[in-house]
Amino acid sequence: MSGDSDCTRTSPSTGSPSDIEFLPDRRKYVCSLSPDLITKAREELQEKPEWRLRDVQALRDMVCKDYPSLGTCLDDAFLLRFLRARKFDYDRALQLLVNYHTCRRSWPEVFNNLKPSAIKPVLESGFVTVLPHLDPEGRHVVCIRPDRWTPSNYPITENIRAIYLTLEKLIQSEETQVNGIVILADYKGVSLSKASHFGPFVAKKVIGILQDGFPIRIKAVNIINEPRIFKGIFAIIKPFLKEKIANRFFLHGCDLNSLHQNIPPVILPEEYGGTSGKLDISAWNELLLASEEDFLHDFSQLVLPCDSSPHDMLRSVQFVPSSKTLAQSTRI
């Protein structure tokens, strides 16, 4: 992860894009994708290996021209995450990058002091983990279990912090950038009082991050064991969801056979009718906690320059959509 972040950041004193291009402290990008994933990225994301670095430079130039005070990392590998998440549409990738920083600066309860050790109680509770095996499409499965949270122990924002750090860790992988992820949310035992903590304000913030403020492709959200009150929860969420994202929600109830149509039993733990043994959260917790120094280094690159304010970041980018933007606007 730290390799991605040994970078030059934009700042008010940064020179022109042409000056930035030749700064010596940016590490050279080396593609780690397999031949099959290179082909997949070409077909699904419009990523052309022969044009990849040209595309990254184009995005970098746009950042430096339009947002010189953004305070962002400008590494090839970091910017490539945003291009892949928006199928190499420069305008949409830039908007996503600006949104990424806007989200981080507009919700201090979540993003201040954000590091694995700070959310250790959440990790130990098992609220969020990542299954050890990939699905047939090469995607990680993020498992979220709200019943593991005791509201009297810490606020809901701690859970959101844990989910965010989990996604940050996953998106380091180029394979994840291409394949995306799958979410498995188990709502067993979630009471009305617990659900009440996830009100419209929190729902709008979280969905804003996942849809428009983070460079990851969420390919499916599988809900299992949802109680009757989940209809109320989903009613809060749905107005904020884009149609294509809403169509990726699958409500299975207690029907494990239905779940297995989306996630094969061979990668699921016994708790969900799988054959991969008991759900073990320790491996993921250890991996995330061992990344402490990397996170501290990486997040130190994402700072607000001293003569800028969060308000500067909240202005939206005004684009005249290109034909490529219009053609791709309905796809993720």
Q: What does it look like?
A:
InterPro entries: CRAL-TRIO_dom, CRAL-TRIO_dom_sf, CRAL/TRIO_N_dom, CRAL/TRIO_N_dom_sf. This is Alpha tocopherol transfer protein like. One of its GO terms (molecular function) is phosphatidylinositol bisphosphate binding. This protein has 332 residues and is of the alpha/beta class. The protein contains 19 helices and five strands. It has a five-stranded mixed sheet with strand order 1-2-3-4-5, sandwiched between helices. Helix 4 packs across helix 5. The chain is globular, with a radius of gyration of 20 Å.
Portion of residues within helices: 40-55%
Number of separate strands:
5
Mean of pLDDT: 85
Topology as H/E string?
A: HHHHHHHHEEHHEHHEHHEHHHHH
List the helices and strands and how they pair.
Elements: H1 2-5, H2 17-20, H3 35-45, H4 52-66, H5 76-85, H6 90-106, H7 108-111, H8 120-125, E1 128-130, E2 140-144, H9 156-170, H10 174-179, E3 181-186, H11 192-195, H12 200-212, E4 218-224, H13 230-237, H14 243-246, E5 249-251, H15 256-262, H16 282-289, H17 292-300, H18 310-314, H19 323-328
Parallel strand pairs: 2-3, 3-4, 4-5
Antiparallel strand pairs: 1-2
Helix pairs in contact: 4-5, 4-6, 5-6, 6-12
Protein name: Alpha tocopherol transfer protein like
GO cellular component, one term: membrane
Pfam families: CRAL_TRIO, CRAL_TRIO_N
